[in-house]
Amino acid sequence: MRLEKCWFCSSTIYPGHGIQFVRNDAKIFRFCRSKCHKNFKMKRNPRKVKWTKAYRHLHGKDMTQDATFEFERKRNRPERYDRNVTEQTLKAIPLITKIRHDHLKKHIADRHKPGKRKEMQKAAKELEQEQHTHILPKKFISNKPSAEKTKVKVQVVQQHTQDNYMEE
To answer: Quick one: what percent of the chain has pLDDT higher than 90?
Structure first.
């Protein structure tokens, strides 16, 4: 079973699905659904259409470079399979999936950092502006500092063993 990629949106096309368009120069274009085919006929650029994989790669929305993508690369020449190599590959698949998932989580967290920073700055600015408008009644303000640090004395006792004493 050969799985193809849509020329427009890069999604997977399963056998018996999608549309195939062959240009006069024998270039084959495969589309997963009529939406992609119609956008292609309207001469739209996939890099400018927001829902495509190309747009997401170009604008940093998806991970584009990761070592785990090398395993999914399409290879056109047939490979000779060895039982040991196949067994090792099957054992490595869960590990590779976990690594890819961890990289994706880190990528998403890095993407959200600037937004969170802006949000915190906006909240701090808003709090600073509203600080002058809200005055707390005196009964809520206490003279005692509540966040005082208390000192705690801790005694450390060493157990003496035969090894600790010097021999004469």
So the answer is: 30
The answer to whether the CB of 21 falls within 8 A of the CB of 32 is no
Q: Report how many domains make up the chain.
A: 2
C-alpha 80/C-alpha 83 separation (Å) is 10
| 86-105 per-position pLDDT tens digit | 898 889 889 888 988 888 88
In this structure, are 72 and 55 located in the same domain?
no
In order, the DSSP letters of 27-73 are -EEEESSHHHHHHHHTT--TTTSTTSHHHHHHTTSS----GGGGGG-
Which residues constitute the domain of residue 58? 1-62
pTM given for the model: 0.46
In a domain, 20, yes or no: yes
Banded pLDDT at 168 (limits 50, 70, 90):
very low
Contact 76, 113 (CB under 8 A): no
14 and 30 inside one domain: yes
Q: The domain spanning residue 35 has which CATH number?
A: 2.30.170.20
Does residue 163 come out as left (phi exceeding 0), alpha (psi in the -120 to 50 range) or beta?
Answer: alpha
Q: Is residue 5 a part of any domain in this protein?
A: yes
